[in-house]
Structures are given as structure tokens and as C-alpha cells.
Amino acid sequence: MNRDDYERLATLSDQELFDFVTEQDSSQRRWVAMHLLEVRRNKSIASSAKWSAVAAWIGAAVAGISAFLAYLSSLK
Questions:
Q1: pLDDT tens per residue across span 10-64
Q2: SS3 string of 21-76?
Q3: Considering only CA atoms, which of 57, 65, 53, 15 is closest in space to residue 36?
């Protein structure tokens, strides 16, 4: 399988790639389709993890500000 074949497979939808994955023979096209589906899945998981970390950081910042304001209000 050459680079052009790989790039052509990369442009297919997930459903079309899944059709190759469910082939009965152990073709190289099947393994490339499995690899591409895994890369797409990992990309979405990594993106979700990144945004979860951003949300956690914002939550920690808000909690820190709240604690600081509570401390200032207790000084009065």
C-alpha cells in the first residue's frame, strides 16, 4: 500500500473505514483502516482531556479567589 492509498483511506468517513475493518480477510487495507479509526478516537479523547484540564484549572482559580475573598471578609 503506497502513500496515495493511505491518504485516500484517510479521507473516508468512520463508517466507510469500519466497513474495511469488518472485512474477513487480513488485508493491509483493513489494518490501515483500524489504525486510522484508532488515531481519530485518540484525537477526540486527547481533546476532551485537554478541555477537562482547562475546566479544572478554572475551577481551582475560582475556588482560590473565593477563599481569598472569604479571608478578606473575615478580617473586618
A1: 888 888 888 877 877 667 888 888 888 999 889 889 999 999 999 999 999 999 9
A2: HCCCCCCHHHHHHHHHHHHHHHHHHHHHHHHHHHHHHHHHHHHHHHHHHHHHHHCC
A3: 15
**Environment class of residue 3 by beta-carbon count within 10 Å: exposed (0-12), middle (13-18) or buried (19+)?**
exposed
Q: Work out the number of other CB atoms within 10 angstroms of the CB of residue 33.
A: 23
DSSP 12: S
For residues 36 and 18, the answer to whether their CB atoms sit within 8 Å is no
Global pTM reads: 0.57
